[in-house]
């Protein structure tokens, strides 16, 4: 599966952005989808994931501000980001884990999110 992330940009602190990740292929609905981010000089960190059936899990750092969702009919996963903070600045990546695996095998190219103070 190929993943294409979009929706990043520059936003002021307190603002919102919605990231999208479009997937190719007919088996999108069978994948667990996740969002990760990597800030300059830091390791990549988990942001959120969503199961095939829509069960979600968010990292503590984003809980209550970010929401992951998916539209299987559109082969797309979203990350709604509200109340953005400067520390949310990073390149955001979407990823897919095949059915039965906890390993994210497929990765998108990343989209830059910059939050100004």
The poorly predicted ranges are none
Give the beta-strand count: 11
Specify Rg, calculated over alpha carbons.
13 Å
H/I helix tally: 0
Q: Helices and strands: which structural class? A: mainly beta
Approximate helicity band: under 10%
Give the integer mean of the pLDDT values: 95
User: Separation of termini?
Assistant: 37 Å
Order of secondary-structure elements = EEEEEEEEEEE
Shape: globular
Largest sheet entry: 7 strands, mixed
Folded structure, characterized:
By secondary structure, the chain is an all-beta fold. Helices cover 0% and strands 50% of the residues. The protein has no helices and 11 strands. It has strands spanning 3-6, 9-12, 17-23, 32-38, 45-50, 56-58, 66-71, 76-81, 90-97, 106-107, 111-116. The strands form 2 sheets. Strands 2, 4, 5, 6, 9, 10 and 11 form a 7-stranded mixed sheet that branches. The chain has a 4-stranded antiparallel sheet with strand order 1-3-8-7, with no helix packed on it. Strand 4 and strand 5 form a beta hairpin. The chain is globular, with a radius of gyration of 13 Å. The termini are far apart. The mean pLDDT is 95.
């Amino acid at each position: 599966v190929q993943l294409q992330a979009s929706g990043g940009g520059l936003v002021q602190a307190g603002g919102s952005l919605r990231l999208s990740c479009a997937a190719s292929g007919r088996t999108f609905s069978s994948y667990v989808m996740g969002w990760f981010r990597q800030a300059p000089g830091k390791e990549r960190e988990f942001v959120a994931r969503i199961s095939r059936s829509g069960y979600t899990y968010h990292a503590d750092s984003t809980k209550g501000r970010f929401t992951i969702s998916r539209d299987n009919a559109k082969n797309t996963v979203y990350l709604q980001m509200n109340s953005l903070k400067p520390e949310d600045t990073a390149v955001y990546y979407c990823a897919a884990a095949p059915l039965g695996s906890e390993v994210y095998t497929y990765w998108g190219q990343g989209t830059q999110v910059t939050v100004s103070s």
